[in-house]
Amino acid sequence: MRQPGDTLFNPSIHIDGGGIERWKDPAYRQVYRHIFDGRWKDYDPFEADYRAEATMTEAGTTNGCSFFRAFQGWLSMSHSGPGKGTLRVLPLLKEATAFWMLRPFASDVPEGAFPGCYPSKTFHITQRWHKLLADHLVSLPEIGPGDTVWWHPDIVHTVENHHGGDEPNAVFYTGFGPDCRINRNYLRHMRHSFLLGTSPPDFPEKNNFEVDYKDRAAFDDLSDVGLKMAGFPLPTILTPDSFQHHLGTSNKDHSFQCKWP
């Protein structure tokens, strides 16, 4: 929740889904093969084949992207709009992607440098290296409670650095991902976090605000759809013994041993 007048929540202009991995990882590199071949107009940003197998986060990155987000989204809980601390995006997708993917190979970039790539960070769009992109973001139009906004994982985006509205601005962030190997692996770790109330993978570890919160969402609060999406056994086959077998036990120190296969 962002209060009126807030200027503290001011993320850099960025692209989620990893940084240097786009050039280093073989599968991830294949996503952009048409761009590298000089045929950027043939690039299809919605082709998911190689993205679903890509390593988008190198080992040791605590704020990366180990979940394949086919789309990222907001569910608005309040009114917002231009000047009220809302999302800002660069609507051009294919053209902008070709620009920042080929930027490291331009004559003004030092050999071996990959502008925008920083260890354990999202991909940054900077004034020095990507001014044409950074100067042309636009704010979302007016939105209200219940409205949703979705954007491609390669869309350049940020939020307005000042909330000039007169009411709190609140949204639920939602990452949408298909059923694939890397997302199933993510769910293994996410189930741990959900049961313990800790921050899930890809989010800052220090944000464990719900560990001791008594009324946080728990296993019994999940619908059948929620259980299936999280990879839990459905109630028709779940018994106390099978729950213990699959999930292990948790104690007051929040130690946990996962027994998922």
Q: Secondary-structure map with pairings?
A:
Elements: E1 14-15, H1 21-24, H2 26-31, H3 33-36, E2 71-76, E3 87-89, H4 94-102, E4 123-124, H5 127-134, E5 138-139, E6 148-151, E7 157-159, E8 171-176, H6 181-196, H7 224-230, H8 240-247
Antiparallel strand pairs: 1-4, 2-6, 2-8, 3-5, 3-7
- Report the structural category: alpha+beta
For the residues shown, what is the average pLDDT?
86
Q: Using only CA atoms, what is the Rg?
A: 20 Å
Number of helices: 8
Overall outline: globular
The tally of strands reads 8
Q: List SSEs in N-to-C order.
A: EHHHEEHEHEEEEHHH
Q: Which band does the percent of strand residues land in?
A: 5-15%
Report the sheet with the most strands, covering strand number, pairing sense and barrel closure: 3 strands, antiparallel
> What is the helical fraction, as a range of percent?
10-25%
Strand order of the largest sheet: 6-2-8
Low-confidence stretches: 248-261
User: End-to-end distance, in Å?
Assistant: 38 Å
